[in-house]
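Form 7-S
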Amino acid sequence: MKLTILGGGGFRVPLVYGALLGDRGEGRVTEVVLHDLDAGRLSAVTRVLAEQAAQAVDAPTVTATTDLDEALRGADFVFSAIRVGGLEGRANDERVALAEGVLGQETVGAGGIAYGLRTVPVAVDIAQRVARLAPDAWVINFTNPAGLVTEAMSRHLGDRVIGICDSPVGLGRRIARVLGGNPKEAWIDYVGLNHLGWVRGLHIAGRDELPRLLADPDLLGSFEEGKLFGVDWLQSLGAIPNEYLHYYYFNREAVRAYQQAEKTRGAFLRDQQAHFYEEMRDPDAHALAAWDRTRAEREATYMAENRETAGAGERDADDLSGGYEKVALALMRAIARDERTTLILNVRNQGTLSVLDTDAVIEVPCLVDANGAHPVSVAPLPDHATGLVCAVKAVEREVLSAAESGSRTTAVKAFALHPLVDSVNVARRLVEGYKAAHPGLAYLK
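Output:
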């Protein structure tokens, strides 16, 4: 089975390959094709994968190419993890927004809109090529903003594109662990959009154990989200929010922390990864060891400003392992082998949430089999969550419209309607600031 990885020179690709190395089942991935526009980054990552393969038996073959059509032909699965504009683009997203006093995070608020505006046209082109060159392939999208990009691609690929994210998986794992349950056996009642969802129940052996967690302040305050949001707020909500909702519930504090930070997250990762890729120019460097060191630092500093604002302290060791590669592998296995499983995924609504239309991409538990991912019916969201979900989905639709039409006016509307942008005039300045920073937004007229 052939897996094509778009963004194949990306830093986290070895996580995906490492997961593949542990799969010994029939119908497993035997061929991996890496595609990237940067040949130097491709070479660096290929070296890391070669060292990983040297420690395994019968590892999948790896080839690399800068030709997108060549990479796509004959693919059974396409894993999309591109970053349009690179980490320099992410750093600029943060810088422009913070100069206006609003959040510049890569998937939330102004930064997420800017990232979406320059990514959607590229993602649509990829979707159209997949439909033409590999019509039977399944596309697994990890490109951020994941929900928005998945919805853009679904207009050309239908349900054959599925978005993944490790954030809900990590949240469910932490809650189950605190409650003394096995995360693999727990049913997680989670619903929302990507980076905008809530756990409303966690069932172990058929019993919802979330009320027990919410009623115990010591237990509730013992894990990442309890420390991040605070016990009182979680008890008020009666649910456990995705960590990215910290940007909404504590927006003023988050913006101030980012403004006061020595470097934004994007600038930190840009410099950190530049050092890694520079190190890989040395043909004698130990690629896997260098990658491991860099990854450990990356994971340990994740959402550092938010945790500092909340006084949450360092991340627990168990939360440093990510997890999106495991979701990707489980998804591929379920489809390729009809190994039925349940995963939290980004898929078209299909009537699951009555407040959104059928084609809106949402993030919910799905039953996955050889025919793809099927969203599970969920209870309606409470009013406060419904308001946020509908508002952010409306913004996503304006981003898609602006990307399709090239309308600057529609782009301004997208920024102005976002709950974390507080003025139409700010929205206008954001559009001009982002157009100046990103040549890829020159299409907005």
